[in-house]
Protein backbone atom coordinates (compact mmCIF):
# COMPACT_ATOMS: atom_id res chain seq x y z
CA UNK A 1 0.00 0.00 0.00
CA UNK A 2 2.82 2.41 0.93
CA UNK A 3 4.72 1.70 -2.32
CA UNK A 4 1.54 2.18 -4.36
CA UNK A 5 0.88 5.51 -2.65
CA UNK A 6 4.45 6.67 -3.39
CA UNK A 7 4.03 5.67 -7.05
CA UNK A 8 0.75 7.59 -7.26
CA UNK A 9 2.25 10.68 -5.65
CA UNK A 10 5.27 10.51 -7.94
CA UNK A 11 3.06 10.34 -11.01
CA UNK A 12 1.36 13.62 -10.09
CA UNK A 13 4.44 15.36 -8.67
CA UNK A 14 6.25 18.03 -10.65
CA UNK A 15 9.48 17.04 -8.90
CA UNK A 16 9.52 13.48 -7.50
CA UNK A 17 10.89 12.56 -4.11
CA UNK A 18 12.53 9.46 -5.58
CA UNK A 19 14.09 9.20 -9.03
CA UNK A 20 11.91 7.48 -11.62
CA UNK A 21 12.88 4.69 -14.06
CA UNK A 22 13.70 5.75 -17.61
CA UNK A 23 10.89 3.59 -19.00
CA UNK A 24 8.36 5.50 -16.89
CA UNK A 25 9.71 8.83 -18.09
CA UNK A 26 9.49 7.83 -21.75
CA UNK A 27 5.99 6.50 -21.25
CA UNK A 28 4.91 9.81 -19.74
CA UNK A 29 6.46 11.76 -22.59
CA UNK A 30 4.56 9.59 -25.06
CA UNK A 31 1.34 10.32 -23.17
CA UNK A 32 2.03 14.06 -23.07
CA UNK A 33 2.75 14.15 -26.81
CA UNK A 34 -0.52 12.45 -27.70
CA UNK A 35 -2.21 15.76 -28.57
CA UNK A 36 0.80 17.17 -30.47
CA UNK A 37 0.80 17.70 -34.20
CA UNK A 38 2.69 14.88 -35.95
CA UNK A 39 6.24 15.83 -36.94
CA UNK A 40 6.49 13.29 -39.76
CA UNK A 41 4.30 12.38 -42.72
CA UNK A 42 3.51 15.70 -44.40
CA UNK A 43 0.08 16.44 -42.89
CA UNK A 44 1.48 19.39 -40.93
CA UNK A 45 2.36 22.15 -43.39
CA UNK A 46 4.25 24.47 -41.01
CA UNK A 47 6.77 24.28 -38.16
CA UNK A 48 8.28 20.91 -39.15
CA UNK A 49 10.46 19.84 -42.08
CA UNK A 50 10.47 16.22 -43.15
CA UNK A 51 12.67 14.60 -45.79
CA UNK A 52 10.58 11.45 -45.75
CA UNK A 53 13.84 9.54 -45.21
CA UNK A 54 13.97 7.88 -41.80
CA UNK A 55 17.67 7.05 -42.09
CA UNK A 56 18.55 10.77 -42.32
CA UNK A 57 16.62 11.55 -39.16
CA UNK A 58 18.34 8.62 -37.45
CA UNK A 59 21.78 9.96 -38.41
CA UNK A 60 20.88 13.41 -37.07
CA UNK A 61 19.56 11.92 -33.83
CA UNK A 62 22.76 9.94 -33.26
CA UNK A 63 25.07 12.89 -34.01
CA UNK A 64 22.95 15.20 -31.84
CA UNK A 65 23.15 12.77 -28.92
CA UNK A 66 26.91 12.36 -29.35
CA UNK A 67 27.44 16.13 -28.98
CA UNK A 68 24.67 16.73 -26.44
CA UNK A 69 26.88 17.34 -23.41
CA UNK A 70 29.57 19.38 -25.19
CA UNK A 71 29.33 22.99 -23.99
CA UNK A 72 29.89 25.60 -26.71
CA UNK A 73 30.68 28.26 -24.11
CA UNK A 74 34.45 27.76 -24.42
CA UNK A 75 35.90 26.76 -27.80
CA UNK A 76 39.30 26.10 -26.23
CA UNK A 77 37.81 23.46 -23.94
CA UNK A 78 35.95 21.56 -26.67
CA UNK A 79 37.83 21.80 -29.98
CA UNK A 80 35.44 19.26 -31.52
CA UNK A 81 32.73 21.88 -31.71
CA UNK A 82 35.07 24.34 -33.43
CA UNK A 83 35.90 21.74 -36.06
CA UNK A 84 32.22 20.94 -36.65
CA UNK A 85 31.19 24.60 -36.78
CA UNK A 86 33.88 25.34 -39.36
CA UNK A 87 32.59 22.48 -41.51
CA UNK A 88 28.94 23.48 -41.22
CA UNK A 89 29.53 27.21 -41.73
CA UNK A 90 31.91 26.42 -44.59
CA UNK A 91 29.30 24.29 -46.34
CA UNK A 92 26.73 27.09 -46.14
CA UNK A 93 29.27 29.70 -47.31
CA UNK A 94 30.20 27.55 -50.30
CA UNK A 95 26.55 27.13 -51.28
CA UNK A 96 25.76 30.84 -50.80
CA UNK A 97 28.28 32.50 -53.04
CA UNK A 98 31.45 33.04 -50.98
CA UNK A 99 33.33 29.95 -49.69
CA UNK A 100 35.61 32.17 -47.58
CA UNK A 101 32.76 34.04 -45.86
CA UNK A 102 33.09 34.15 -42.06
CA UNK A 103 30.04 33.02 -40.15
CA UNK A 104 28.41 32.00 -36.90
CA UNK A 105 26.38 28.91 -36.05
CA UNK A 106 23.27 30.01 -34.13
CA UNK A 107 20.17 28.49 -32.55
CA UNK A 108 17.81 29.61 -35.31
CA UNK A 109 16.74 32.34 -37.67
CA UNK A 110 15.69 34.73 -34.94
CA UNK A 111 19.12 34.60 -33.31
CA UNK A 112 20.86 34.94 -36.68
CA UNK A 113 18.75 37.99 -37.46
CA UNK A 114 19.32 39.47 -34.02
CA UNK A 115 23.08 39.15 -34.43
CA UNK A 116 22.93 40.66 -37.93
CA UNK A 117 21.06 43.67 -36.55
CA UNK A 118 23.50 43.95 -33.61
CA UNK A 119 26.50 43.86 -35.94
CA UNK A 120 25.02 46.55 -38.18
CA UNK A 121 24.05 48.73 -35.22
CA UNK A 122 27.48 48.51 -33.63
CA UNK A 123 29.32 49.00 -36.92
CA UNK A 124 27.63 52.34 -37.68
CA UNK A 125 27.12 53.65 -34.12
CA UNK A 126 24.55 56.37 -34.85
CA UNK A 127 22.06 57.80 -32.41
CA UNK A 128 18.56 56.29 -32.57
CA UNK A 129 19.48 53.75 -35.27
CA UNK A 130 16.94 52.49 -37.78
CA UNK A 131 16.54 49.42 -39.97
CA UNK A 132 14.52 49.50 -43.20
CA UNK A 133 12.48 46.36 -43.86
CA UNK A 134 9.58 45.31 -46.12
CA UNK A 135 6.29 44.71 -44.29
CA UNK A 136 6.71 41.07 -45.31
CA UNK A 137 10.04 40.77 -43.44
CA UNK A 138 10.00 38.25 -40.61
CA UNK A 139 8.93 39.56 -37.17
CA UNK A 140 12.37 38.52 -35.91
CA UNK A 141 13.59 41.90 -37.19
CA UNK A 142 11.02 43.65 -35.01
CA UNK A 143 12.05 41.45 -32.10
CA UNK A 144 15.72 42.26 -32.64
CA UNK A 145 14.91 45.96 -32.86
CA UNK A 146 12.88 45.75 -29.64
CA UNK A 147 15.73 44.12 -27.76
CA UNK A 148 18.50 46.23 -29.26
CA UNK A 149 16.93 49.70 -29.13
CA UNK A 150 16.55 50.06 -32.89
CA UNK A 151 13.63 51.60 -34.77
CA UNK A 152 11.94 49.67 -37.59
CA UNK A 153 10.89 51.49 -40.76
CA UNK A 154 8.47 49.16 -42.54
CA UNK A 155 7.96 49.61 -46.29
CA UNK A 156 4.78 48.39 -48.05
CA UNK A 157 4.99 45.77 -50.79
CA UNK A 158 3.23 45.52 -54.15
CA UNK A 159 -0.16 43.87 -53.58
CA UNK A 160 0.05 41.80 -56.76
CA UNK A 161 3.62 40.50 -56.57
CA UNK A 162 4.08 40.95 -52.79
CA UNK A 163 7.62 42.19 -53.43
CA UNK A 164 9.07 45.42 -52.10
CA UNK A 165 10.11 48.17 -54.49
CA UNK A 166 13.80 49.18 -54.51
CA UNK A 167 12.63 52.78 -54.95
CA UNK A 168 10.52 52.54 -51.80
CA UNK A 169 13.42 51.03 -49.86
CA UNK A 170 15.80 53.77 -51.04
CA UNK A 171 13.28 56.46 -50.14
CA UNK A 172 13.14 55.12 -46.58
CA UNK A 173 16.93 55.29 -46.06
CA UNK A 174 18.21 58.26 -44.07
CA UNK A 175 21.26 59.22 -42.02
CA UNK A 176 20.08 57.02 -39.13
CA UNK A 177 19.68 53.85 -41.21
CA UNK A 178 22.12 51.14 -40.12
CA UNK A 179 20.72 48.21 -42.13
CA UNK A 180 18.48 47.47 -45.12
CA UNK A 181 16.70 44.12 -45.29
CA UNK A 182 15.39 41.99 -48.16
CA UNK A 183 13.95 38.46 -48.12
CA UNK A 184 14.79 35.38 -50.18
CA UNK A 185 12.00 34.46 -49.97
CA UNK A 186 9.62 36.29 -47.67
CA UNK A 187 7.72 33.74 -45.60
CA UNK A 188 4.11 34.92 -46.09
CA UNK A 189 3.86 34.45 -49.87
CA UNK A 190 7.14 32.74 -50.75
CA UNK A 191 8.42 35.40 -53.19
CA UNK A 192 11.94 36.81 -53.52
CA UNK A 193 12.51 40.53 -53.14
CA UNK A 194 14.65 42.20 -55.87
CA UNK A 195 17.88 41.58 -53.97
CA UNK A 196 20.31 42.94 -56.56
CA UNK A 197 18.60 46.31 -56.90
CA UNK A 198 17.99 46.71 -53.18
CA UNK A 199 21.58 45.84 -52.29
CA UNK A 200 22.90 48.26 -54.94
CA UNK A 201 20.73 51.10 -53.61
CA UNK A 202 21.87 50.39 -50.04
CA UNK A 203 25.54 50.23 -51.06
CA UNK A 204 25.25 53.53 -52.89
CA UNK A 205 24.08 55.10 -49.63
CA UNK A 206 26.80 53.36 -47.62
CA UNK A 207 24.35 51.13 -45.77
CA UNK A 208 24.81 47.36 -45.16
CA UNK A 209 22.23 45.00 -46.69
CA UNK A 210 21.10 41.80 -44.99
CA UNK A 211 19.33 39.05 -46.91
CA UNK A 212 16.95 37.00 -44.81
CA UNK A 213 17.33 33.61 -46.46
CA UNK A 214 16.42 31.70 -43.31
CA UNK A 215 13.81 29.79 -45.32
CA UNK A 216 15.42 29.85 -48.75
CA UNK A 217 19.16 29.80 -48.11
CA UNK A 218 19.50 26.03 -48.16
CA UNK A 219 16.62 25.53 -50.61
CA UNK A 220 16.91 28.00 -53.48
CA UNK A 221 20.29 26.71 -54.80
CA UNK A 222 18.85 23.19 -55.09
CA UNK A 223 15.67 24.49 -56.74
CA UNK A 224 17.85 26.38 -59.23
CA UNK A 225 19.78 23.17 -59.91
CA UNK A 226 16.44 21.44 -60.53
CA UNK A 227 15.50 24.01 -63.17
CA UNK A 228 13.73 26.79 -61.26
CA UNK A 229 14.36 30.40 -62.31
CA UNK A 230 15.98 31.66 -59.10
CA UNK A 231 17.44 35.19 -59.28
CA UNK A 232 20.79 35.99 -57.63
CA UNK A 233 20.21 36.47 -53.90
CA UNK A 234 23.31 35.46 -51.95
CA UNK A 235 26.76 36.82 -51.03
CA UNK A 236 27.75 36.87 -54.69
CA UNK A 237 25.40 39.85 -55.16
CA UNK A 238 27.31 43.17 -54.87
CA UNK A 239 26.13 45.11 -51.84
CA UNK A 240 24.90 42.12 -49.83
CA UNK A 241 26.87 42.25 -46.58
CA UNK A 242 25.24 39.45 -44.57
CA UNK A 243 22.82 36.57 -45.02
CA UNK A 244 21.01 34.18 -42.69
CA UNK A 245 20.27 30.54 -43.55
CA UNK A 246 18.41 28.08 -41.34
CA UNK A 247 19.58 24.48 -41.51
CA UNK A 248 16.64 23.28 -39.42
CA UNK A 249 14.32 24.26 -42.25
CA UNK A 250 15.27 22.95 -45.69
CA UNK A 251 18.59 21.65 -44.42
CA UNK A 252 16.33 19.22 -42.50
CA UNK A 253 18.53 19.36 -39.40
CA UNK A 254 17.05 19.11 -35.89
CA UNK A 255 16.05 22.37 -34.18
CA UNK A 256 17.81 24.73 -33.60
CA UNK A 257 20.38 25.21 -36.31
CA UNK A 258 21.05 28.33 -38.36
CA UNK A 259 24.06 30.04 -39.91
CA UNK A 260 24.74 33.76 -40.20
CA UNK A 261 27.33 34.73 -42.83
CA UNK A 262 29.11 38.05 -43.35
CA UNK A 263 31.17 39.34 -46.24
CA UNK A 264 34.05 40.21 -43.93
CA UNK A 265 35.40 39.24 -40.53
CA UNK A 266 35.28 42.79 -39.18
CA UNK A 267 31.48 42.81 -39.38
CA UNK A 268 31.31 39.35 -37.82
CA UNK A 269 33.32 40.63 -34.86
CA UNK A 270 30.63 43.28 -34.30
CA UNK A 271 28.18 40.44 -33.64
CA UNK A 272 30.37 39.03 -30.86
CA UNK A 273 30.17 39.94 -27.18
CA UNK A 274 33.08 39.97 -24.73
CA UNK A 275 33.34 41.04 -21.10
CA UNK A 276 36.34 41.27 -18.83
CA UNK A 277 34.71 43.52 -16.22
CA UNK A 278 34.44 40.91 -13.51
CA UNK A 279 36.80 38.66 -11.52
CA UNK A 280 35.58 35.38 -13.00
CA UNK A 281 36.30 33.31 -16.10
CA UNK A 282 36.79 34.88 -19.53
CA UNK A 283 33.54 35.75 -21.31
CA UNK A 284 33.54 35.74 -25.11
CA UNK A 285 30.33 34.79 -26.94
CA UNK A 286 29.65 34.49 -30.63
CA UNK A 287 25.91 34.18 -30.02
CA UNK A 288 23.25 35.58 -27.70
CA UNK A 289 23.54 32.45 -25.60
CA UNK A 290 26.54 31.65 -23.41
CA UNK A 291 26.40 28.03 -22.31
CA UNK A 292 24.69 25.98 -25.00
CA UNK A 293 24.71 22.38 -26.07
CA UNK A 294 26.60 21.34 -29.19
CA UNK A 295 23.79 18.86 -29.84
CA UNK A 296 22.12 21.01 -32.52
CA UNK A 297 25.50 21.56 -34.18
CA UNK A 298 26.13 17.81 -34.19
CA UNK A 299 22.63 17.20 -35.57
CA UNK A 300 23.16 19.73 -38.36
CA UNK A 301 26.55 18.28 -39.25
CA UNK A 302 25.13 14.75 -39.21
CA UNK A 303 22.23 15.72 -41.49
CA UNK A 304 24.48 17.43 -44.04
CA UNK A 305 26.84 14.46 -44.07
CA UNK A 306 24.02 11.90 -44.31
CA UNK A 307 22.30 13.59 -47.27
CA UNK A 308 25.26 14.99 -49.21
CA UNK A 309 24.93 17.01 -52.40
CA UNK A 310 23.12 14.25 -54.25
CA UNK A 311 20.53 13.89 -51.49
CA UNK A 312 19.78 17.60 -51.38
CA UNK A 313 19.67 17.80 -55.17
CA UNK A 314 17.07 15.04 -55.26
CA UNK A 315 15.04 16.73 -52.51
CA UNK A 316 15.22 19.97 -54.49
CA UNK A 317 13.91 18.26 -57.61
CA UNK A 318 10.97 16.57 -55.88
CA UNK A 319 10.15 19.66 -53.82
CA UNK A 320 10.04 21.86 -56.93
CA UNK A 321 7.75 19.39 -58.67
CA UNK A 322 5.47 19.13 -55.64
CA UNK A 323 5.26 22.92 -55.25
CA UNK A 324 4.26 23.43 -58.87
CA UNK A 325 1.65 20.69 -58.72
CA UNK A 326 0.24 22.07 -55.49
CA UNK A 327 0.04 25.69 -56.70
CA UNK A 328 -1.54 24.65 -60.00
CA UNK A 329 -4.03 22.42 -58.20
CA UNK A 330 -5.08 25.07 -55.68
CA UNK A 331 -5.61 27.61 -58.48
CA UNK A 332 -8.17 25.25 -60.03
CA UNK A 333 -10.29 24.96 -56.86
CA UNK A 334 -13.30 27.32 -57.11
CA UNK A 335 -13.19 30.05 -54.48
CA UNK A 336 -9.41 29.96 -53.95
CA UNK A 337 -6.56 31.95 -55.47
CA UNK A 338 -2.80 31.63 -55.07
CA UNK A 339 -1.14 34.84 -53.89
CA UNK A 340 1.75 35.93 -56.08
CA UNK A 341 3.98 33.51 -57.96
CA UNK A 342 5.75 31.23 -55.46
CA UNK A 343 9.49 31.20 -56.10
CA UNK A 344 10.55 28.80 -53.36
CA UNK A 345 8.38 26.03 -51.91
CA UNK A 346 6.01 28.22 -49.91
CA UNK A 347 2.48 28.58 -51.25
CA UNK A 348 -0.13 30.98 -49.89
CA UNK A 349 -3.74 31.10 -51.04
CA UNK A 350 -6.65 33.36 -50.21
CA UNK A 351 -10.35 32.60 -50.15
CA UNK A 352 -13.33 34.56 -51.40
CA UNK A 353 -16.51 36.02 -49.90
CA UNK A 354 -18.06 32.56 -49.87
CA UNK A 355 -14.94 30.70 -48.63
CA UNK A 356 -13.53 31.81 -45.27
CA UNK A 357 -9.93 30.61 -45.04
CA UNK A 358 -10.13 30.47 -41.24
CA UNK A 359 -13.08 28.07 -41.46
CA UNK A 360 -11.24 26.15 -44.18
CA UNK A 361 -8.27 25.67 -41.83
CA UNK A 362 -10.56 24.32 -39.09
CA UNK A 363 -12.21 21.93 -41.54
CA UNK A 364 -8.79 20.62 -42.62
CA UNK A 365 -7.80 20.17 -38.98
CA UNK A 366 -10.90 18.04 -38.40
CA UNK A 367 -9.68 15.84 -41.24
CA UNK A 368 -6.21 15.42 -39.70
CA UNK A 369 -4.31 18.11 -41.64
CA UNK A 370 -2.78 21.33 -40.31
CA UNK A 371 -2.88 24.23 -42.77
CA UNK A 372 -1.43 27.43 -41.34
CA UNK A 373 -3.76 30.47 -41.27
CA UNK A 374 -2.26 33.94 -41.74
CA UNK A 375 -4.02 37.15 -40.72
CA UNK A 376 -4.53 40.07 -43.09
CA UNK A 377 -2.04 42.94 -42.89
CA UNK A 378 -1.00 46.01 -44.89
CA UNK A 379 -3.52 45.29 -47.64
CA UNK A 380 -2.61 41.60 -47.93
CA UNK A 381 -5.72 39.45 -47.35
CA UNK A 382 -6.06 36.68 -44.81
CA UNK A 383 -4.78 33.46 -46.30
CA UNK A 384 -3.55 29.92 -45.81
CA UNK A 385 0.17 29.15 -45.89
CA UNK A 386 1.68 25.81 -46.90
CA UNK A 387 5.35 24.87 -46.63
CA UNK A 388 6.20 22.13 -49.12
CA UNK A 389 8.95 19.82 -47.84
CA UNK A 390 10.67 16.70 -49.09
CA UNK A 391 7.91 14.40 -47.90
CA UNK A 392 5.14 16.38 -49.66
CA UNK A 393 5.95 14.94 -53.08
CA UNK A 394 4.19 11.64 -52.35
CA UNK A 395 1.16 13.34 -50.79
CA UNK A 396 0.30 16.22 -53.14
CA UNK A 397 -2.88 14.60 -54.43
CA UNK A 398 -4.04 13.80 -50.91
CA UNK A 399 -3.37 17.39 -49.82
CA UNK A 400 -5.26 18.81 -52.79
CA UNK A 401 -8.19 16.51 -52.02
CA UNK A 402 -8.25 17.73 -48.42
CA UNK A 403 -8.06 21.39 -49.49
CA UNK A 404 -10.91 20.91 -51.99
CA UNK A 405 -13.03 19.02 -49.45
CA UNK A 406 -12.34 21.60 -46.75
CA UNK A 407 -13.17 24.41 -49.18
CA UNK A 408 -16.54 22.84 -49.90
CA UNK A 409 -17.18 22.42 -46.18
CA UNK A 410 -16.18 26.03 -45.48
CA UNK A 411 -18.49 27.25 -48.23
CA UNK A 412 -21.37 25.25 -46.75
CA UNK A 413 -20.64 26.45 -43.20
CA UNK A 414 -20.32 30.11 -44.15
CA UNK A 415 -17.88 32.68 -42.72
CA UNK A 416 -16.89 32.68 -39.06
CA UNK A 417 -19.31 34.80 -37.05
CA UNK A 418 -17.78 37.51 -34.88
CA UNK A 419 -19.90 38.35 -31.82
CA UNK A 420 -21.41 41.80 -32.53
CA UNK A 421 -19.38 44.62 -31.06
CA UNK A 422 -16.63 42.34 -29.70
CA UNK A 423 -13.69 43.80 -31.70
CA UNK A 424 -14.78 47.30 -30.73
CA UNK A 425 -15.06 46.26 -27.09
CA UNK A 426 -11.63 44.61 -27.08
CA UNK A 427 -10.08 47.67 -28.70
CA UNK A 428 -11.24 49.77 -25.73
CA UNK A 429 -9.93 47.41 -23.03
CA UNK A 430 -6.74 47.84 -21.08
CA UNK A 431 -5.65 44.22 -21.52
CA UNK A 432 -2.72 44.62 -19.15
CA UNK A 433 -5.15 45.54 -16.38
CA UNK A 434 -7.17 42.32 -16.71
CA UNK A 435 -6.35 39.44 -14.40
CA UNK A 436 -5.92 35.96 -15.88
CA UNK A 437 -9.42 34.82 -14.83
CA UNK A 438 -11.09 37.75 -16.58
CA UNK A 439 -9.01 37.25 -19.71
CA UNK A 440 -9.91 33.55 -19.67
CA UNK A 441 -13.61 34.47 -19.55
CA UNK A 442 -13.10 36.89 -22.42
CA UNK A 443 -11.51 34.11 -24.47
CA UNK A 444 -14.45 31.84 -23.66
CA UNK A 445 -16.79 34.43 -25.20
CA UNK A 446 -15.23 33.73 -28.61
CA UNK A 447 -15.29 29.98 -28.18
CA UNK A 448 -11.83 29.16 -26.86
CA UNK A 449 -11.49 27.43 -23.51
CA UNK A 450 -8.04 28.19 -22.14
CA UNK A 451 -8.57 25.63 -19.39
CA UNK A 452 -8.97 22.79 -21.88
CA UNK A 453 -6.17 20.75 -23.41
CA UNK A 454 -8.33 19.91 -26.43
CA UNK A 455 -7.64 21.66 -29.73
CA UNK A 456 -10.30 24.36 -30.12
CA UNK A 457 -11.86 25.50 -33.36
CA UNK A 458 -9.96 28.67 -34.21
CA UNK A 459 -11.99 30.27 -37.01
CA UNK A 460 -13.85 32.73 -34.78
CA UNK A 461 -10.71 33.51 -32.79
CA UNK A 462 -8.76 34.23 -35.97
CA UNK A 463 -11.63 36.29 -37.37
CA UNK A 464 -11.69 38.43 -34.22
CA UNK A 465 -7.89 38.87 -34.32
CA UNK A 466 -8.13 39.74 -38.00
CA UNK A 467 -10.59 42.54 -37.21
CA UNK A 468 -8.24 44.16 -34.68
CA UNK A 469 -5.26 46.47 -35.22
CA UNK A 470 -1.83 44.86 -34.94
CA UNK A 471 -0.92 46.31 -31.51
CA UNK A 472 -4.15 44.92 -30.01
CA UNK A 473 -3.50 41.54 -31.64
CA UNK A 474 -0.07 41.51 -30.03
CA UNK A 475 -1.46 42.36 -26.59
CA UNK A 476 -3.98 39.53 -26.85
CA UNK A 477 -1.33 37.04 -27.96
CA UNK A 478 0.92 37.97 -25.04
CA UNK A 479 -1.95 37.53 -22.60
CA UNK A 480 -2.85 34.21 -24.21
CA UNK A 481 0.71 32.92 -23.80
CA UNK A 482 0.79 34.06 -20.18
CA UNK A 483 -2.47 32.28 -19.36
CA UNK A 484 -1.64 28.93 -20.95
CA UNK A 485 1.65 28.78 -19.04
CA UNK A 486 0.08 29.80 -15.72
TrEMBL record:
The keyword Lyase applies. GO terms for biological process: carboxylic acid metabolic process. Transmembrane segments: none annotated. InterPro entries: GrpII_AminoAcid_Decarb, PyrdxlP-dep_de-COase, PyrdxlP-dep_Trfase, PyrdxlP-dep_Trfase_major, PyrdxlP-dep_Trfase_small. Keywords: Aminotransferase, Lyase, Pyridoxal phosphate, Transferase. The keyword DNA damage does not apply. Pfam families: Pyridoxal_deC (PF00282). The modification N6-(pyridoxal phosphate)lysine is found at residue 249. Its cofactor is pyridoxal 5'-phosphate. One of its GO terms (molecular function) is transaminase activity. Belongs to the group II decarboxylase family. Sphingosine-1-phosphate lyase subfamily. PANTHER family: PTHR42735, SPHINGOSINE-1-PHOSPHATE LYASE 1 (PTHR42735:SF6). This is Aspartate aminotransferase family protein.
